[in-house]
Amino acid sequence: MNQADVTKLISQLRIAVRPSQRNLKNSDGPEGRLLKLRKTVTALMKHERIELYYNRADEARGYAELVRIISNGYNISSLHSIPIPKQLISNAIRHGDRHKATMELADYWLLEKQLVHKLFKVLVPRYENYNVSYTRMYRAPRDYPGMYYRQSVLELRGNPYPSLVMDQSHNRNLLHNVLLDEARKEFRRKKLADLVN
Amino acid sequence: MSRATKLHKASWCALSQLQQYRTKSNFSTSIASRNELFAQEQRRQRDAVGRIDKIEVRYLGLPEDVTLVMNNHISTPFNCAQHLSEGHCRRTALALIDGSVPWDMHRPLQESCTLQLLNFNVSEPHVVNKAFWRTCSFMLGAALTRAFKTEANLQLHSFPGPNIKSGSFIHDIVLETQNWQPSKSEMRAISAEMIRLAAQDLRIERLDVQQEIAQEIFKDSKYKSEQLPSIAQQNNGRVSLYRLGDHIDISRGPMVASTHFLGKCTVSAAHKLAEEGSAGAFYRIQGVALPCGFKLSHVAYGLLEERSQKLNPARLPHEPFEEQQQLQLS
């Protein structure tokens, strides 16, 4: 009846997440897992692009995403009663830096406290109008010979580094661009001919 | 390992590959004899090298410029890439000798030279694109040979030189029917055959032979044996042949290293060009393709597909023969 729409209370992730968590093998159990993830999320916020094992990256990614949802001022009073979602960025964007729960969340996930400022002053403005995920993940080659674990690169979108994927849209000589350009020319010729007749 | 053992291994591989194809119902004896002749000539040329001379190949490019000492008339650009990394072997579609001559990846080097390895993403990819388009036409021939039953009496005629701007690669064939109107699912079956070829990751080998041997190889193909004299005449009595799996065709080349470079591919249209003889007709099969790793949205690719259905303006096969050959050799 007058219940709030639950889907609007919690930020929606823009990435696919596994239904079950990975335990990230360590001697300290669940706490150790969280510490590992906090370290990763902190490093991601700090360096904006990190290379690490695939499992850990994929696990940390979801938490980092929601960190950012936190910081946009949004209907704060109604949200005090609900449990804090775990994700950092999306929450940061959603509630802004005047929201106590969000601040606590940022304080928990970012081990280096100067990054809290970065989160609200740099990352939140950057991602305010994004309609895609805030992080991006690539598979990376693994060392040979070396550990068998799959490697990956995790990065924040809009980072200042050169892109990791090849830019295939600007070189007009690439095969698909040649084909598309010719198709466009032919279309224009046809339009012009139609106009003349 | 002695050379004899190596050769034995190579021919054993070829044989097992052949046996694989033999299981197919439409594998004819003429294809088998063609392949046998091709392999024989390949072996003969390899044996004729005799004493092995060393050449210096100066490789220019990433990760660093190096000089490789290779075997004359034996080592290929692919062997040079093997010295660099697996990635080079996998990615390189075509080699560039002395900064200007495009060279097949699996064609032995003839003298000391500089070497560049090209892929589809280099800043000036005209040569690679052209080679890719030519390879697509060649592969289309192979796909058609596999797709048609023997009752259809398919004869490959030729494929004109690659023209990417026309929007489609083509292969001209002769069929024993004058009113073939392929349905959508039939075209899709041929496209699937192309994709299957790409998935098999077949090496594309080149062999330069004397005209007599080429005549012997194509003795049961009416059109090819008609074309051979004029091709050989323009090329000092030699003809360059290409082989992909069990499919052999004449082409000036160069072609890309392997079939796995074919990514998205659609065989889009078959146009009847002219009647041939009492019951047959020329058909022009057209298609469009992108190299693997090129991403294009469905809408954009749909536009390309649509455009590739229009009849390609390249020289028609039933027009005077010499001019046609000029085009094929371009």
Description:
The complex is a heterodimer of chains A (about 200) and B (about 325). Chain A is mainly alpha-helical and about 200 residues long. Chain A has 2 domains: about 5-165, 50s Ribosomal Protein L17, Chain: A; about 165-195. Chain A is about 50% helix and about 10% strand. In chain A, strands 1-4-3 form a 3-stranded antiparallel sheet, with helices on one face. In chain A, helix 3 packs parallel to helix 5 (about 90-95). The longest helix of chain A is centred in the C-terminal third of the chain and has 22 residues, at about 175-195. Chain A is extended, with a radius of gyration of 22 Å. Chain B starts with a helix and ends with a helix. Chain B is globular. Chain B contains 10 helices and 12 strands. With about 325 residues, chain B is an alpha+beta fold. Chain B has 2 domains: about 55-120, Ubiquitin-like (UB roll) (Roll); about 125-330, Threonyl-trna Synthetase, Chain A, domain 2 (Threonyl-tRNA Synthetase, Chain A, domain 2). Chains A and B meet through helix 8 of A and helix 5, strand 12 and helix 9 of B.
Helices and strands, with pairings:
The complex is a heterodimer of chains A (197) and B (330).
Chain A: H1 6-9, H2 30-47, E1 49-53, H3 54-68, E2 69-70, H4 76-79, H5 89-95, H6 100-109, H7 114-127, E3 135-140, E4 151-156, H8 175-196
Helix pairs in contact in A: 2-3, 3-5
Chain B: H1 3-22, H2 29-47, E1 54-59, E2 66-71, H3 77-84, H4 86-91, E3 94-97, E4 101-103, E5 113-118, H5 126-147, E6 155-158, E7 169-175, H6 184-200, E8 204-210, H7 211-217, H8 222-234, E9 238-244, E10 247-250, E11 262-276, E12 280-291, H9 298-308, H10 321-329
Parallel strand pairs in B: 1-5
Antiparallel strand pairs in B: 1-2, 3-4, 3-5, 6-7, 7-12, 8-9, 9-10, 11-12
Helix pairs in contact in B: 1-2, 5-6
Structural class of chain B: alpha+beta
Distance between the termini of chain A: 64 Å
Second CATH tier, the architecture of the largest domain in chain A: Alpha-Beta Complex
Q: What's the Cα radius of gyration of chain B?
A: 20 Å
Q: Provide the low-confidence segments of chain A as ranges.
A: 70-86
Order of strands in the sheet with most strands of chain B: 2-1-5-3-4
**Adjacency order of strands in the biggest sheet of chain A:** 1-4-3
Kindly provide the radius of gyration of chain A, computed on alpha-carbon positions and rounded to a whole number of angstroms. Answer: 22 Å
Percent range for β-strand residues of chain A: 5-15%
What CATH architecture label of the largest domain in chain B applies?
2-Layer Sandwich
Report the end-to-end length of chain B measured between terminal Cα atoms: 42 Å
Unreliable sequence segments of chain B: 22-26
Give the overall average pLDDT of chain B.
89
What's the order of the H and E elements of chain B? Answer: HHEEHHEEEHEEHEHHEEEEHH
The CATH topology assignment of the largest domain in chain B is Threonyl-tRNA Synthetase, Chain A, domain 2
- The CATH superfamily of the largest domain in chain B bears the name Threonyl-trna Synthetase, Chain A, domain 2
What would you call the quaternary organization? Answer: heterodimer
**How does the major sheet of chain B shape up?**
5 strands, mixed
Number of domains of chain B: 2
Q: Helix amount of chain B, in percent?
A: 40-55%
CATH topology term of the largest domain in chain A: 50s Ribosomal Protein L17, Chain: A
